Amino acid sequence: MKLSTKLILAFLLVSIFSTGIIVLSSRILANREFERFMDDRYQSELAEELARYYRNNQTWDGVENEFQRYGHEPDKNSEPHPLYFSISDTQGNIIVAGNGYTKGEPCNEEDLENGFPIQVDNNTVGVLLLPTSPNQRSPLDYEFLRRLNGSIFLSAFATLILALFLGVLLSRSISRPIQELTKATHNMADGNLGQQVPVRSRDEIGELTQSFNKMSADLARSFNLRKQMTADIAHELRTPLSLILGHAEGVKDGVLKPNRENFEIIREEAERLEHLVNDLRTLSLADAGELSVDFQSVDVNVLMRDVHAHYLTLFNQQRIALNLEAAPGILTVNLDPGRFTQVLNNILDNALRHTPEGGSVELKTKLTEKRIQLSVKDSGEGVTPEEAQHLFDRFYRVDASRTRDDGGSGLGLAIAKSIVEMHKGRIWAEGEKGRGLLVIIELQQA
Questions:
Q1: Which of 237, 262, 287 is the last residue of a domain?
Q2: Which domain does 331 fall in, by range?
């Protein structure tokens, strides 16, 4: 049975059950209130007749003969009916006996409280005691009850029809996005990634649809990135391997001389290949959460000074200024100094490759609201803001500034991002074409 059918049946069953309860209670209450209304009306009419009798006679004598048939159909062949009501004075003493009372005896307090006062000229001349009213229902009264009950049943039937209609609409509104999600998941299972389902509401199903769309987009992006990464790895491996095999075969066949220059080319390409394999291994360990780290309490100002001193000679050789601006005080962070030095090395290697001779690279530490920022800004050719968002993707290269001839593996910044995220930090890049690149690392202060 489909979900929509189940929902329709559920709405219908709930409506039938609730409508049945309402109809039953309405009939009982309507009949009860109608009986009470008729009793009150009869009692009021009887009290008015008794008041008229007293006004005309100024006594209750003879009232039994006048009212013994009141409320009954006349029957000449039967004995007169006894009085079915009594009248007491205001103190509760019976002055007209009937309904089980005898004249002169006191009535019980409950009957007196429930009695109906008989007034003549705003004076109470007696209290009508009528515990139960006789069956004085006319055909019109029963016709009124019949029509009232019919109206209740008709309203119940209309309510069920409306409930069925609303059940169909609501079941469709609920089951439609679920059907769309089911169809999209089947398409994804068939290999069609990136499925998107329209978000039709802001409830839990709408949130589920949004989560599915995000998951689908992330899966498609991850799949495409992995395909691209596989192609990039094959390309990166093929280039040094081709050079190594080409020079080795050339030396073997005598086409190339077995001199130092040719062996140096083979060695450099082998080192490039080893560096790429090591970077890939580091990334795979980071992805699996198996990259070993040794957290220590480290002053990042000291760490930045050590990195600055290590690279100062290399930058001077390229005629590039390397400056350090450290924030005052001790900026302590829990981190692995070896892994974090690798992060800074990768960022500085990238800055060194893309900063022209005569340019500068600025290292800076900054404390902002219990968070510590480390930044590296170069004066190179820069990148656009859109390109800056992808600099930490694996094997991502900006056409004008990131070519294989620069000597990088295309994984340095991706490794830096993985290590920073292992330290519960953030790393991002800000750039503008022609104004250099700014890389910022943000860490929680210890």
A1: 287
A2: 296-444
